[in-house]
Design brief:
This protein is an alpha+beta fold and 97 residues long. The chain has three helices and four strands, in the order E-H-E-E-H-H-E. The chain has a four-stranded antiparallel beta sheet. The longest helix has 12 residues.
Amino acid sequence: MYGTIFTLDIKQGQEAPFLETLKSATAGLTPEGMKAWFVMKPDNGGEWIGVAVFESKEAHINNANDPRQAEIFGEIMGHLKSEPTWTDGSYVIGEIA
């Protein structure tokens, strides 16, 4: 499996609108090869953390190059202070219980 872990620096007062945008933009849309995605709001505040999991690097890259994904990213950026930081790589072990 392959994917990305990313940070989200959400503008003050934009948490609820950010979540609504994310929910509406992804409703009924599961990119080919996507296995899971999560967004965490840390207890200690600060930037939120996201995780995306794909079946392969190819599926991840195909999603990143999809025009619909670029459109969703543009909508999400309206709620962020800056572009996310991305860490891409292979997941070497894990489990969803």
